[in-house]
Design a protein that fits this description.
- This protein is of the alpha/beta class.
- It is built from 15 helices and 17 strands.
- It has a 9-stranded mixed β-sheet, sandwiched between helices. Strands 3-2-1-4-5-6 form a 6-stranded parallel β-sheet.
- β14 and β15 form a beta hairpin.
- α2 packs across α3, α9 packs across α10 and α11 packs across α14.
- The chain binds 6-O-phosphono-beta-D-glucopyranose (BG6).
- The site of 6-O-phosphono-beta-D-glucopyranose has 4 residues, from loops.
Length: 514
């Protein structure tokens, strides 16, 4: 069992300059406690926080779901999940200690009585576990249950913070399916919980390397002066997955790659890359700057969608030599489905920093490799010194690898050893794993800790979500028209339709190879 040993003395890399708000004792109530998210992500994350010694002094976890089950049965199920999905090996003693703070509450989501019983049960648990009356409600249920849950939660008075304590809500994605539904959900959520108590999850923001974007940009003096249209030629953001729809057709059929990944995760990454320096590190100072980027995204007309957005769906193909079926042949997918599993876009940010710098994004399932990265391609050096050489100079490229093999690399030109002047690109490479000798926590660990600490910086604010939908809706609308741009097929195991390559080739560029 890898147990936390605390900061290693004398290793400045591990100590660094630390700031963290302290998680407070609380009870976490998880709605949808028997679902996939709770098993795969939430409980393993809580266990790992416990193993790292970072839990608040007192914690209770109450799973709320429909199926009848005893506390012990629930604990047993969660233990199996933790053993399967935890990033650290599960230690029996530590698990048993943690499991004692886990409880199960059976109720339908739309049963007012169930919430009254929950209120009574919470009082009791809070006394036993000394969690100080703080409550964190986690909505991990299907999105169509959010409104009924909120209604009964509020009717039972559970949304109100008790004396000297707090009540917060974490809302999982998808946060709406378009601007209208997101606005409605915001209205319903904010009718019960004020915005400062509302934590909208975008798990990409919890990823270590996503957080490092701000550190890279603003804690180093050398990048910021170059971070603009004068020196940057273009930016690419790729989120590639080898996985297919993996039994999630029920959700994915109605979502597609644009809503599933671009509206939230990719636009959030873009905001971190594109935002102005915030005046301080307060949650709202950072989010004020982020939302300006989404606002400044040039809006597409229907004809812009046809020229700047490419959508695709995987057909039969092969991955690592093994045949894989087409999207339309996957379980619970309509054989005539028009849902996109790939999308590539060319965006422009209309502000002084980014004027005329194209941002190319692509995201897809069943691509040859899994990896998420951002690459910043700088303009070429003027060939005043080396123009007598026949070879063209490469661009400097700064690559931020979000996952896997988290790290940052910088490509530059160097003289190859030898008597002639031969210039070759070389790479300076930083890998988290080797530099810090420490595994990064899972995104959910950081996000749960932040919510328990009252730090909303890494959660999406109401206006960010709405602005993002406003941008995405224009593309979705264009795709619904009779003369909508084509949905291209691509073989599973390829890098998407050729039209996605064309998007860059016509600008004299190409996608970076992952
Ligand atoms: C989820 C999407 O939000 O993010 C999935 O719904 C996608 O379709 C997943 O697979 C990717 O996240 P990660 O952390 O596995 O890269």
């Amino acid at each position: 069992m890898e147990q936390s040993t605390g900061p290693v003395q004398g290793n400045p890399l591990r100590e660094g300059i630390a700031t963290r708000t302290v998680p407070e004792s609380c009870t976490i109530v998880i709605f949808g406690a028997t679902g996939d998210l709770t098993h795969r992500k939430l409980v393993p994350a809580l266990y790992n926080i416990a193993a790292d010694g970072e839990l608040p002094p007192n914690l209770a976890v109450v799973g709320f779901a429909r199926r009848p089950k005893s506390d012990d049965e629930f604990r047993k199920e969660l233990e199996e999940a933790a053993r399967k999905y935890s990033r650290q090996t599960v230690n029996d003693d530590l698990w048993n200690g943690f499991a004692r703070s886990v409880f199960y509450h059976q109720s339908e989501f739309a049963d007012a009585e169930g919430y009254k019983r929950l209120a009574e049960r919470l009082e009791k648990i809070e006394q036993e576990r000394a969690t100080e009356g703080n409550r964190l409600f986690y909505f991990a249920a299907a999105p169509d249950q959010f409104a009924p849950i909120l209604k009964d939660l509020a009717a039972a008075g559970l949304h109100k913070p008790r004396d000297g304590a707090w009540a917060r809500v974490i809302v999982e994605k998808p946060f709406g399916t378009d601007l209208a539904s997101a606005r409605e959900l915001n209205r319903v959520v904010n009718a019960a919980f004020p915005e400062e108590a509302t934590y909208r999850i975008d798990h990409f923001l919890g990823k270590e390397t996503a957080q490092n974007i701000l550190v890279l940009r603003f804690a180093n003096a050398i990048f910021e002066p170059l971070w603009n249209t004068r020196y940057i030629d273009h930016v690419q953001i790729t989120a590639a997955e080898t996985l297919g729809v993996e039994g999630r057709a029920g959700y994915y059929e109605g979502a597609g790659a644009l809503r599933d990944m671009v509206q939230n995760h990719l636009l959030q990454l873009l905001c971190l890359v594109g935002m102005e320096p915030p005046t301080d590190l307060g949650a709202d100072s950072i989010r004020d700057e982020k939302v300006k980027i989404v606002r400044a995204l040039r809006r597409f007309s229907a004809s812009d969608v046809a020229t700047n957005v490419v959508r695709g769906q995987y057909a039969d193909g092969a991955l690592s030599g093994k045949p894989v079926p087409a999207y339309c042949a996957e379980k619970n997918v309509n054989p005539k489905s028009k849902t996109e599993t790939f999308v590539a876009l060319k965006l422009l940010i209309d502000n002084w920093r980014w004027a005329d710098v194209p941002i190319y994004m692509r995201v897809g399932k069943r691509l040859p490799k899994s990896g998420t990265e951002i690459s910043v391609h700088f303009k070429k050096a003027p060939s005043v010194l080396f123009n007598k050489e026949s070879q063209a100079l490469d661009q400097n490229v700064l690559v931020i690898r979000i996952q896997p093999d988290e790290g940052i690399s910088l490509r530059m030109q160097a003289k190859m050893p030898g008597t002639s002047l031969r210039i070759e690109p070389v790479k300076m490479d930083f890998h988290y794993g080797t530099s810090f000798g420490k595994a990064s926590p899972e995104a959910y660990e950081r996000l749960l800790l932040d919510a328990m600490s009252g730090d909303a910086t890494l959660f999406a604010r109401r206006d960010e979500v709405e602005q993002a939908w406003e941008f995405i809706d224009r593309i979705e609308d264009a795709w619904k028209q009779d003369d909508a741009p084509a949905l291209w097929e691509y073989p599973a195991g390829s890098w998407g339709p050729e039209e996605a390559d064309e998007l860059l080739v016509r600008d004299g560029r190409s996608w970076r190879r992952l």
